[in-house]
Amino acid sequence: MRKKRSFITILTVAIIALAVLILFMNILDIHFNLVTYHTATEGDYTVAFKGSFGKVRRAVVKKDGSRVGSLKLSADAETYSDSAKILLLDVNADSETDILLPFALDEDGDVHYTAFTAENGKFKSADGITDLADPSVGEDGLIYTDEERRVQISPETSKSPETYETYHTIAKHGFIDGALVTLETRSIIYYSENDYCCYSVYVYDEDFKELTYFDEKWFDPSALEEYPLGWD
Predict the structure, then answer these.
(1) Which pTM value belongs to this model?
(2) DSSP string computed for 83-139
(3) Residue 2's pLDDT band (boundaries 50, 70, 90)?
């Protein structure tokens, strides 16, 4: 009987100790990244996305089979399907190969990437390039787009009724001389005050280093289908 009680006591203490250990590991963000949820290869680089309990917390980067980095991530393991890929390019124009890693999947199915820049063979998180939705790499380097919808309301006053404008905008972003800039925006704006719409386009001017007016068209809301908001 005493042996049985001793065994139960030891088992109870062990369970409590394990629970406390797991609690403190979560509080201190200490984890054993024992599971490889996905591996992706691009060029000379291979990245293993590692973690535990359904969470990816590390990306182990190897070049030509040699380990060159262990990068901190925070992502759900389900983000990494068999088609999840890494992207390689020189994002900051310093002639070194930088790396973009997937870390999230949004409701529209777009994969979000975060960038790590190379410096003397080591990688570090890239300032300002931490969330790029569905980017692509082509002849013009890295390009990614996003979309925004918003409403701006002008409250009623003693001299005028309430009015509002609705904005539907798409934007294209890329790198110029190592800096992330907005290359072009296209918007459809509805003005309730006069019940009219405007299709406007702004493009990046390299001389002024900012978006500048390019084109606009005014039209009746009944003609909205004639102005699809998209990229040519």
Answers:
(1) 0.68
(2) T---EEE-TTSSSS-EEEEEEEE-TTSPEEEEEEEEETTEEEEPTT-S-EES-EEET
(3) low
